[in-house]
Amino acid sequence: MMRFKIAGLCFALLLLLAGSAFAQWQYQYSPDLSYAFNAVHFPTASVGYIVGSGGVIYKSIDGGSTWTQQTSPTTNSLNDVFFRDANNGFAVGASGTIIYTSDGTNWSVHAQSGVITTTTINAVWFVGMNGWIGAGAASAACQIYSTSDGGATWANNVVTNPSLDLCTDISFASATIGYASVDRNGIMYTIDGGVNWTKSTVNLGPYPYTRTDIEAIYAVSTTHAVACGWGSNVGGQPTIILVSTDGGATFNTPDATYPWATYTYAYNFAKFDNGEVMLVGGGSQSAGISIHAMGPNYTTWTRYPAFYGESINDACVVPGTNKVVAVGDAGVVALSTDRGLTWTFLYDGGMPFQGVGAFADAGKNKIWGFGAGGALLYWDLAAGTYKYGMCSPKNWGPTTIGDLDYVLNPLDPPSGSYDSSYADVMYAAAGTGYLCKSYDQGKTWIELNHTLALYDGFLGMHWIDPLTGFLVGHKAIGNSRDEVIWKTTDGGYTLVEVQGPDPAITTSMQWNGISFAPGNPNVGAVVGDDNRIRYTADGGATWPYATENIATSTLDLEEVVMINSTTGFAVGDGGTLVKTTDGGASWLVQAPGWGTVNLTHITFNTPNRLWVSGADQFLWYSVDGGATWTNANVTPIVSTYDVMTVHYQGAAGILWVGCHYANVLSRTDAVAGVETPKSLPFVLNQNFPNPFNPSTTIAFTLASDDHVTLNVYNVAGKLVATVMDRDLKAGDYSVAFRADGLATGVYFYKLSTSRGEETRKMVLLR
Question: In which residue ranges of the chain is CATH 2.60.40.2550 found?
């Protein structure tokens, strides 16, 4: 098994405790990137072994439920492990490494380690005392070595090898019949124990792959074998699955429509006693995949639930059981007792390496971070704890990060009843057309959309209320992506294209961000590739193009914020910062002085205070509405790591950043810029728009948990509407008020809590 990984056995660093005070950046989550687990093997129903990067070795003696680290004689990465009986085993890896054990406990470096070859050894296999190892270097002749004395000595079989690339995997059905996979579309088979090898004929099906790497092979029998690999992940080429039913002479795709619909690497196989095989894989910054098929001819492959957003490098069935153990990046070790339907994560790396790409909070003490593969981190600041999970009902999430929103529901449920119509709702959106929602703050999720097509994706969203929202991204048109704006009025169950692709654009295009003016759902803007901007002044009914004066037309805009009905900012590649003062119709380049670094995100707290994140530790902020900017780079992270997103948790006064390789940091000093006086029990803002017809938005902030009543009165002091009457957590809130049935005139809205009340005036103009 060939593996080239940088991964880690993760642990979270000390979390921010509620009420703590600190200056500068503080880690809230960070992995220890030490181990990737590359291979797992069970010689018996109780004993199993795991090997990985840094020469790490783990052993289980209870069928995979618990694992103990063993002493390794090498620090070289180990790529594969195999036991020829209960006690005698071999592990192989980088720089020609071969180590062995004769008692399952003590490991030694083999005398021929680094001698017979100095290239990477990717695979080892035994049938009795006969064994084989596969090695090689890219674009060089494949190397296969064999032993007939249980691994005491190894001989080179490369002379009659027909391959011109490295051996990625090797598997034998008997002492004479075996198969080997080779990088770059190569498979070989032997009928004489590996002395002579014949190149197989490979039929990949109708898809026009631009590259074909065969990563793994498994000898199901002397006549049947399965192989897997990948094309171009960037190009959206289907995961390669191949089947041979003639002893390796030919390998064919089992279904020319590629119904498994995955586009990531395929790394290895596991086989159950009844002949069922399980393929696993994933890839750098991708969610793990699991695809199953039944014999005898393996014509139908079914995608199973994936893993915690990490690549899965290998899996092994515990002999004689329905249990299977899977291992992968970031120290992932997962155990299934039902043949891969559900998984228990014994050790997990937590947030994928892409890191947190979006945040959402529910007031003062609750905040969530969203990452690739549907990975979700939840911090309870009051308790000083965090939890890790998936925003997916099946542990089956997207491979890329889109957006995460928490939407307050202003409706007060009837006493003693519960209905999701009255609940706050959290939405997550991402690649492969993935959209889901949660009514219970992330404990359970409802999947609303999941196309599994690489070129379908939601990259940004904005919710007007719990039912009404806009999503932007791209949809698949052949082998390209085309930009789309969708709208939903039923909480995401139905998505309607309100702005489809521009037929004048002949290259792939996507929208990356969307924002509406706070309190004014009529005014909004979207930004995307090649500096394109559209805006709306009619609540999203129409989206004409905006004008801009960006000099380079090929730069992409990544995010936009409208801070009020006239003013907004957008950021993008090459340090681009543009500003609108006319509701999004026109945009002018600003000169912040930060150079040409690629920018990823922009957010704001008030019209004066904004933050911008970007590549290479980048974070700058403004306290004067973007007139001037100050450097506050996230220096604790590695200088080449990107700050993917920035989020201000207003009720708590905490600034959060999500960075590459799963680093999450925060701060509460002047950079965070807490502007709400902490001594006040609440702040009631002026409604917007004002005057209004027929609806307006009322925003307020609670400094602590309280019961809140928001009433509307006419000039005679008569109560005409109760907008809210409920218990609320500390935080920032925004509620809509519709003046249905009310006449033109002056009205007053009053916010009441246990610690005081405040009244403001608003005007209704029919």
Answer: 682-764
Average pLDDT (321-325) is 97
Please enumerate in sequence order all residues whose Cβ is within 8 A of that of 667, keeping only pairs 6 or more positions apart, or say none.
22, 23, 24, 25, 26, 654, 655
Q: What are the backbone dihedrals phi and psi of residue 173, each rounded to the nearest 5 degrees, phi first?
A: -90, -25
3-class SS of residue 627: coil
- Burial class of residue 459, CB neighbours in 10 A (0-12, 13-18, 19+): buried
CA 79 to CA 68: how far, in whole Å?
A: 19
Q: Do β-strands 198-199 and 201-203 pair in parallel, antiparallel, or remain unpaired?
A: unpaired
659's CB contacts (< 8 A; 6+ apart) are: 355, 356, 634, 637, 641, 642, 643, 644, 665
The DSSP output letter for 660 is: G
> How many CB atoms are closer than 10 A to CB 32?
14
> What is the rounded distance in angstroms from the CA atom of residue 662 to the CA atom of residue 357?
9
The class level of CATH for 682-764 reads mainly beta
Residue-wise pLDDT tens digits, 421-472? 667 899 999 887 889 999 988 888 888 887 655 567 899 999 999 999 999 9
pLDDT of 413 reads 59
- Phi/psi region, residue 441 (left: phi>0; alpha: psi -120 to 50; beta: rest), is left
Higher pLDDT, 680 or 574: 574
What pTM does this model have? 0.71
How long is the chain? 766
Q: Please calculate the CA angle 53-55-59 and round it to the nearest 5 degrees.
A: 100
N-to-C CA span, the chain: 72
pLDDT band at 223 (very low <50, low <70, confident <90, very high): very high
Q: What letter would DSSP give residue 571?
A: E
| CATH 2.130.10.10 segments of the chain | 31-347
How far, in Å, CA of 737 to CA of 349, rounded? 45
Please tell me the distance from the alpha carbon of residue 327 to that of residue 312, in angstroms, as a whole number.
6
Q: Give me the sheet containing 480-488, strands edge to edge.
A: 457-463, 469-477, 480-488, 496-499
The Cα–Cα gap between 598 and 476 comes to: 26
Q: Return the number of other C-beta atoms located less than 10 Å from residue 368's C-beta.
A: 25
Structure tokens at 124: 């080892």
Higher pLDDT, 478 or 260: 260
Cβ pair 706, 727 in contact under 8 A: yes
Distance CA 513, CA 526 (A): 6
Q: H or E segment at 589?
A: strand 586-589
* Superfamily classification of domain 31-347: YVTN repeat-like/Quinoprotein amine dehydrogenase (2.130.10.10)
